[in-house]
Amino acid sequence: AGEPLVLLGARALYWPARQALLLADLHLGKADVFRRAGIALPGGGTGKDLQRLQGLLDARACREVWILGDILHGPAHRAAWYQQWLGWRERNAALDVHVLRGNHDRQLPRAELQVQIHDEVRLPPF
């Protein structure tokens, strides 16, 4: 539609006109879900993902972030990843965070992640 977008090597898309960062498939809590099932995974995944996200935000002027499906991996147990997310949200309280719900996001309405949840999005023209 003639709208310039910037593809970023850190697995995201920047939309300058909206000052929006778009990314998909964060899968917060994935390691927690696997560990609860008896599958060993290394720790630190959520922290690294949030550092990458923060680096993207620090590098450009952003008013909003859009997570295009699967912000969660499974049930939102109050594990360490949840506290990391809430800390990140507190540091970025002025940022509008939108989530277009994906197939892993069934528990999203009860997760209390301080995000705006959408099943469908039609953005108005500028």
Count of distinct strands: 6
Largest sheet: number of strands, sense, barrel closure? 6 strands, mixed
| Shape field | globular
Strand order of the largest sheet: 1-2-3-4-5-6
- Put simply, the count of helices is 4
**Percent of residues in helical segments?**
25-40%
Distance between the termini: 12 Å
Range of strand content: 15-25%
The whole-number mean of residue pLDDT values reads 83
Characterize this entry briefly.
The protein has 126 residues and is an alpha/beta fold.
Labels describing this entry:
126 residues, six-stranded mixed β-sheet, globular
Describe the structure.
This protein is an alpha/beta fold. It is built from four helices and six strands, in the order E-E-E-H-H-E-H-E-H-E. The protein has helices at 30-36, 45-59, 80-91, 108-111, and strands spanning 6-8, 12-15, 20-23, 64-68, 96-100, 116-118. It has a six-stranded mixed sheet, with no helix packed on it. The longest helix has 15 residues, at 45-59. The mean pLDDT is 83.
